[in-house]
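<derive_structure_tokens>
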Amino acid sequence: MLEIKDVMYYYKSQKDKVILNHISYSFEEGKMYAVLGTSGSGKTTLLSLLAGLDVPVEGEICMNGVNIMQKGLNGHRKENISLVFQNYNLIDYLTPVENVRLGGKEDAMGLLRSMGLDETQSGRNVMQLSGGQQQRVAIARALASNAPVLLADEPTGNLDEDTANEIIAIFSELAHKKNKCVIMVTHSKELAQKADVILTLKKGSIVGTEDTVLDEKIRGALLEKVEGLSAPDNPRDKIMQEIEKQNS
């Protein structure tokens, strides 16, 4: 679906400081990805390139096998990408419904209901909502465009642990039930483990990939095999059973 091919990126004023160093990877629909790494590892730059907010110095970004430059970056963002930010980026003088309507033509109130907000909450000023509710509004706005790819930059950075887990659960459902390709940048190893695939960036390179779903399937299969193995008969137990039969 969305692919990075031998992408290299650096700031033109700092050519000796490579942000992304010839990385390649293919993202698939129906999966949630976590891009993990410390500050300065290239996570946000990668997200910007995938969104068509910037262009690589070398290499290319492809959507369904076509370089996004051919369609144009504006067209790529409009048709393929929805964005969720750490700071929500909502219009603070509008209601949740009005904010979502800015994102596209999908039913705004229906999307907000699916995010757990009722009519009363959706009709008040967005700044009167909690941080978790504002992030739900931001996700609903992102879904209003019906784009196949959702990119999230530290979407739980300003949220408490319980609310963060709720937001990650929403992302997981979007991937698995709505068949979205969800790519989330995070610095939290704990939250990253809830993704289907973890990409670890270090100094501009992908230094590790972990398929958590495959690992879980392997663990499950091994557990079934172990549980299916019956313990060898204990001769002492058999003898005691025979003695009990004779005495009964």
In short: The chain has a mean pLDDT of 87. The first helix runs from residue 43 to 51. DSSP finds eleven helices and ten strands in the chain. The longest strand covers residues 18-27.
